[in-house]
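hey so i finally got around to running the thing on that chain from the lab meeting. sorry it took forever, my laptop kept dying and i had to restart like 3 times. anyway pasting the input first so we r on the same page abt which one it is
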Amino acid sequence: MAKRKAKKETHKKDFSGSRVEPKPSLNKNPQPEPDRSGDQFRKGGWVGWACLAGVIMAAFLGNFHTLTDTDIFWHLKTGQIIWQTHQVPHQDLFSFTVAGKEWIDAQWLFQAMIYALYRVSGYAGMILLGAVLTGLIWALMLGPAFSPRKYFWVILLALVALITASVRMKLRPEIFSYFFMTAEILLINRYQRGKKSALYPLPLLLLLWVNSEGLWPIYFLILGAFLLEEIFFLPQLKFGRYVQRGFPVPAKSAAVGLLICLILSLPLALLNPNGFKGALFPWTLLKEVSLPGNLTGNWIDEFRSPFAMLTRFSLTAYVILIAGSALVFGLLLFKRIFYPAAFLLEAAFLGLSLSAVRNVAPFAILTGALLGRILKESPYETIFPWPKIRDRLFRLRPPAVGLVLATMILLSADMVTSRYYALIGQTYRFGIGALETDYPIRAAETLKAVCAASGEKVHLKIFADLFNAGYLIWAGYPEWKVYFDPRLEVYGEEMLKTQVQAITDWPSFKAEDRKYDFSAVVIVPGSTLKNLIVSLGRDPDWSLVHLDGMSVVFVKNQAALEPGIRAYGIDFEKGFASIPPRGLNGRWLAGEKLRVGATIMYLGHPGPALSELEQGLSLAPEDFGLNYYTGLALNSLQRYPEALPHLEKAARLEPEDIPNLNEQAWAYFSTGRTGEAIEIYRRILAKHPREITTCMNLALVYELSKSELAYPQWQTCGELTKSDPYAYEQFYPEIEQALSRLKR
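ok and heres what got predicted. didnt touch it at all, straight out
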């Protein structure tokens, strides 16, 4: 019996219930391998705590910036309505196009919360909420994965994840989803490690999530993935003999607990103001957005590929995160260590992030939350199984830690000075408030003044783009109603197509104007909407009353608005000076001056445009746009010698920019350097043979130079228009006149 008992004790069970045979040691006196974890500091654990505090502080500072999201102000107005009426709206209130249409407001709890903060502390409370939540997200990510003596790779992972996610770290409902996501992973991991009560808060977390933001189905995705993981390790399936499971709670008990939690959570999805429709809303929205040929994915930037939208800085961090996580999972599998839930979730969120830039942040946060714990639990010899590489990395610990600390300090400093936001391609600034360069604040003030000039309450139907509509709702509802706003799910795909046509095509705009009788137009300045701005400027039914770097405002010549038009109408012939944004300077003010100057150029007034552009150039002399438009304005004023230095500098900054090269060539011709002008035109046409403007410019240079090549060149331009009559129809009359002129 003793012999049988001794034999039985040589068989031990792994945590999944599978039996593992012990391997005999070839060393008669085996010594345990010393713990040389790459981050193991025998002294100086304070360094680890400093790194932890540094990452959390950087996360807080990274989201302590001025409001920037286009949706935030219609959310704020909805929160105000909820507080005033004590109910969640179920129908559209803000538009005159789909007024009364069903509206499923899935973010009502977020809206009520930010409005409550706004009532108490203004924008400061709202911004502080976003910063605190971001700091908490990284604290939840790092807390369970952190050890003051084994921390380096976890801290590095969290730092890369922070840089990757920064582009979406704004005060918007999805930041609640990021918080709930990390909290759910934390609670499930604690449950797997023996804390049974950790599952109790999960249903409450779902209830808050369902009423805060539409990404709540992630809750079931995470819970389902961990449930599948426990099922995978059930003793009956015998997968445990092939891979290890490192949790103390038996797989069967853990699976039962997670299954009960899942069953209890399912009906809670119905506890929202819209009941069953509210529960189905995320799936309906996902279906609409993912349809082939859907305009939302092409028109809205956040649905585009991260490789097209992220700056080089953010994209580098994103690629490093993908490569690093793939390497860790690959090495774990090589060592027969498998985390099914982490693997499934990582693959799912990576696929989502590759499809749309808006999904990069949840991928980064999930990677940090899952991979951090894995790195903490895995021996250094598992992550780096090659002894030579491991030893070299071990020796590089101190400078590597110093580099990470220095990076965090520099990032934090750049956040406080707002330089960091330029690295990730954003225009907001560190601090509290709403920037006049990010919202139509000045435009709304002008509209209010125009309406007040009539001496009575004026109701406006405003045609606005997505960037302006949300703030106009906040500033003017209920007297102001909008044609379209960022609540795309309310308007639908067909209405979005109509809006895009109206904002880019003048006849379509006129058709919508006849249908709805717009009172005002508020749109962003820029080349995308150039045709609409120019057409409104030429139309006698409309008057320009406001122009700044964020908004162009036209109002219709209606009797109720006539006093305001007389008081605030802009006449460039009498002089113009834009209203400067308050408290801004440097590159922000330079960008403002560029957009204003370019818009005035579109409207055909190079003199006032030049004044704005020169002010911008004094702040950013190396900016391509400012140099190009300054050269364009000087060319239009026939001050060609003055234009050339700006156009040549712009050509050095952007050598392939065709409009600038065309202006540069014309300035060369106008200053007697005809050969250089012809060479530039020919070089453009060699690369872009269908470039009609260049073709016509070259023909005109030949004609003015009395060259025999003029007529053949005009003929070439005529043949080009015939290849696509619709695209080139505006150029056809000028070409016909030139051919007739040369024939005579």
